Amino acid sequence: MTAARPRTVLLTGAAGGLGTLMRGLLPGYGYRLRLFDLRPVEGEPAAVTADLTDAAALREAVKGVDAIVHLAGISLEAPFEKILHSNIEGAYRLYEAAREEGVRRVVFASSNHAVGFTPRPADGGPLIPVDTPHRPDTYYGLSKSFGEDLAQLYWDLHGIETVSVRIGSCFPEPTSVRMLSLWLSPADGARLFHAALTAPDVGHTVAYGSSANTRLWWDLSTARALGYEPQDDSEPYADELIAKQGEPDPADPEHARLGGHFCTRPPIWPH
């Protein structure tokens, strides 16, 4: 079965860093974006400004869209009560609105922190598989594990398809040596979200989200199976970053796990 190309896509978290990047890139693939965020979206007076737990506002935002790219929520560590409200209840409300309005495709911004306590691979060792068990490194990572399981439930129970993208770090360029392994260029991010929106018969698919980095730690096979063809590599930034920061010691607890410093001293929201 071939998936029909979505035309109107609800983009939640449209005022955030990743949302801002995708606002500029996804229309190039032919999408009309409807924007949603807790904060006003600069230069976008038609954007919906509401909390994800505002069921009425969310349902109105979802009405009539063909698909949802769900980027909203707290993106660093925070007290559990805040994570519960924004990331866990917010994700549930989003899926309920999708169910009520008959939206059949969601792209969910999961995170490498859903499996953050997974040991990083040794140099030259096997890549981390996509079916590695959940090992969240924070309440934030726990909320992403929940989001993936919620997506599975809504596929099994209601037939809503989801691609859960375990995003590494999506910035214009990598800013740390660790990020050389997990970097997702904005252009590749848009390529991956486009593939996730248009691939047929995804059910609930989990995919790692990064560029084709020379120092890659995880397996991109499920992302590639969606039709994702990454074009970028972090390696051109490697010499400068290593000269400034040095090579990480794999015996250091901060570098021994996929989640990096989230496992030892997570950055706290708001950053």
Description:
It is a single chain. The chain is α/β, with parallel strands linked by helices and 271 residues long. It has nine helices and seven strands; from the N terminus they run E-H-E-E-H-E-H-E-H-E-H-H-E-H-H-H. The protein has helices at residues 17-25, 55-62, 80-101, 139-158, 179-182, 186-198, 221-225, 238-245, 253-256; strands at 8-12, 32-37, 48-49, 67-70, 105-111, 161-167, 204-209. The N and C termini lie far apart (44 Å).
Short description:
The protein has 271 residues and is α/β, with parallel strands linked by helices. The protein is 34% helix and 14% strand.
Detail the topology: elements first, then pairings.
Elements lengths: L7 E5 L4 H9 L6 E6 L10 E2 L5 H8 L4 E4 L9 H22 L3 E7 L27 H20 L2 E7 L11 H4 L3 H13 L5 E6 L11 H5 L12 H8 L7 H4 L15
Parallel strand pairs: 1-2, 1-4, 2-3, 4-5, 5-6, 6-7
* Gross morphology: globular
Give the radius of gyration: 18 Å
Q: Roughly what percent helix?
A: 25-40%
Whole-number mean pLDDT: 96
Can you count the beta strands? 7
Short key terms for the protein model shown above:
single chain, 271 residues, alpha/beta, 7-stranded parallel beta sheet, 9 helices, 7 strands, globular
